[in-house]
C-alpha cells in the first residue's frame, strides 16, 4: 500500500513538472507571405539607404579636403591635385553605383545604371509611387504628397494607367491629381499641364470637379469624398 502511494506521488510530481501548453500556432498566427516579404524589402531598403548615406558622407569629406588643397596651393600643384580630385570623384561614382545598384537589384532598361526609390515606394519605369493606406479628401491627399516631396498621381499613358490599376486592384478608388481649374473650367493636372482626352474620357465637370481611378476606369467625383491616394516622384538614377 505504501508503494502505491509513493508511485501516485511520483506521477503527480511528474505531471506538474510538465504542464500542458497550447500549440504554438494557436498563440502566434502566421502572417501572410506577402506581409513578411514586404517587411523584408523595407528593411533591405533602409540598409541600402544607410549605406549610401555613409558612402556619400565619406565622399563629401574627401571633396572638402580636395577643395581646400586646391585653394591653398600654387598653379602647378593645383593641376596635380585637380587631377587627383577628378579621379577620386570617378572612383566614388563607380563604387556608389556598384554598391547601391547591386544591392537593390534594380537595373535600368539600358543596363547602364539603376533607378532607386525610397523605402515603401514602388518603382515603375522612371517614377516612384507611394500608395496610401488611409482615406482623405482630394485637397488633403494633395497636401500629403507635397509633404513627401512628391505630387498627387499624374497619368501620362496607357501603360502607366494599367500599372496603377494593377497596384490598386484591392482598392475601391484612388484619387488622381486631376481637377477643374477656375474660371477656365478645364481639366488640369496638378503639374499644370492640360488633360488629354485621348487617354480617357471625362464627363462634364458638373458631375464632380475631381477624378478617381477604379479597376474599370475613370470617374468624376466630388472633391470632399474620402478616398485613398497615390503620390509620385521621379526615381533617382545612378547612371554609368
From TrEMBL:
The protein's matches in Pfam families, at most eight in alphabetical order, are given as: Lectin_C (PF00059)
Keywords assigned by UniProt, alphabetized: Disulfide bond, Lectin, Membrane, Methyltransferase, Signal-anchor, Transferase, Transmembrane, Transmembrane helix
Name where it's found. Membrane
Does the entry feature the keyword Transferase, yes or no? yes
Keyword Transmembrane helix: yes or no?
Answer: yes
* Membrane-spanning parts: 37-60
Q: Which CDD domains match?
A: CLECT_NK_receptors_like
Q: Name one GO molecular function term.
A: methyltransferase activity
Q: Name one GO cellular component term.
A: cell surface
Q: Name one GO biological process term.
A: regulation of natural killer cell mediated cytotoxicity
C-type lectin domain ranges (all copies): 124-232
**Chief place of localization:** membrane
Its record classes its membrane topology as: Single-pass type II membrane protein
Q: Could you name the domain of life of the organism this protein comes from?
A: Eukaryota
Question: PANTHER family annotated for this entry?
Answer: KILLER CELL LECTIN-LIKE RECEPTOR SUBFAMILY B MEMBER 1
Protein name in the entry: Cysteine methyltransferase
Q: Which organism is it from?
A: Platysternon megacephalum
